[in-house]
Design brief:
This protein is of the alpha/beta class and 356 residues long. It has 8 helices and 13 strands. The two termini are 16 Å apart.
Length: 356
């Protein structure tokens, strides 16, 4: 049996650090345009207590999402010594394309995958480059697609990138602005005949009928900008939280059941870094499905505290840092079973079971 094995990873963590304190004088409004009078310190303390975020990273003004994606991909290729001309696919997950500093206009032509392939200097026309928009679970869904190509024999090596500059599509007068950040991560998957490593199973769902509007684009909350044609990313936070708790644990369990892997054998659970409190609740709910006691939270490494929520980039960045031993008290060993899962706009959910 051919399996898809992760043979290289890379990430681009922007060096522009934005702390919670940087928002202390920001004028935030409610969705109906009412100024939030609450003291800045109170707002920031409450925000950190709920989300776990104390700072986040933004891209430099001259950088775009494709630039960040190229840096992450180049790191994976260079550090591994893999011949980039041997890649069969370059799949790039994102949601907003390249957005230049000072604008929130989306630029999708040519595709980010084509731009990154060109930046990487890949000349091979049989290396197919395309984009995938699937909300925050986009990178993991791209991994799932790459796995299909590899398992079918159509591909031997796939480069899968998640990249985003959310700082340029958020409303500066919406408190949710503080959640989001920029970044990129990349992995290279390769065909292997090993029975002891690779992707074992996955499961994906889309709940569009009732939930498609939980994340959408909308006007600024600031009354002075109500007539502006600009649109910003908006989310219904409480409903999204409830949706995730209800559905994500079952998707993870379905993937584990398909892989015939007991929860007790899982060494790490890597969840999309959307909200620390939500991720902890998802993990606890997963253990409840199995009738298990509350888990040791060391099972779930977190980066949201210092990287924020960079959408499709959170999982590959987290995985790269974990692979390289750059997360304190977290290691991956040969044979370890890992679950990766994400939830986001669509509403989409996915999970992958992987053996190191």
């Amino acid at each position: 049996m051919i399996r898809s094995v992760l043979v290289a990873s890379g990430s681009c963590i922007p060096d522009l650090v934005v702390s919670n304190q940087d928002f202390s004088t920001t004028r935030f409004f409610t969705p109906d345009g009412t100024l939030i009078e609450q003291a800045g310190a109170v707002t920031l303390d409450r925000f950190q207590a709920i989300t776990g975020i104390r700072e986040r990273r933004y891209a430099r003004p001259e950088q775009t999402a494709s630039d960040l994606g190229w840096l992450a991909a180049d790191e994976a290729l260079t550090s591994s010594g893999i011949d980039r001309e041997s890649l069969d696919y370059v799949i790039v997950a994102h949601n907003f394309g390249d957005v230049v500093d000072g604008s929130n206009r989306v630029d999708l032509v040519p595709s980010l995958a084509s731009r990154i392939k060109a930046q990487l200097g890949i000349r091979n026309p049989d290396c197919v480059a395309y984009d995938l928009a699937f909300g925050c679970p986009g990178w993991l869904e791209a991994v799932i697609q790459a796995n299909y190509y590899i398992r079918s024999g159509d591909a031997r090596r796939c480069l899968v990138i998640g990249t985003e500059t959310l700082s340029r599509v958020v409303d500066p007068h919406d408190r949710d602005t503080m959640l989001f950040s920029d970044g990129s991560g990349a992995v290279i998957l390769e065909a292997s005949s090993s029975a002891n490593a690779g992707i074992l199973a996955h499961h994906t769902q889309t709940y569009a009928h009732e939930y498609a509007g939980l994340l959408s684009m909308g006007k600024s909350y600031a009354p002075a900008q109500s007539e502006s044609p600009d649109r910003f990313m908006k989310m219904q936070g409480r409903k999204l939280y409830e949706f995730a708790l209800q559905h994500v644990p079952q998707v993870v369990k379905t993937a584990l059941d398909k892989a015939q892997v007991p929860l007790t054998q899982v060494k790490k659970v890597l969840l999309h870094q959307a909200n620390e409190k939500m991720d902890v609740a998802i993990l606890q709910r997963l253990f409840q499905l199995y009738g298990e006691a509350s888990p040791n939270l060391n099972l779930m490494p977190m980066t949201i505290g210092w990287l924020g929520n960079s959408s499709v980039a959170t999982l590959p960045t987290l995985l790269d840092l974990l692979q390289k031993g750059q997360l304190a008290d977290h290691r991956l060993e040969t044979g370890d079973l890992v679950v990766l899962a994400s939830v986001g706009a669509g509403m989409n959910i996915n999970a992958v079971v992987y053996q190191c």
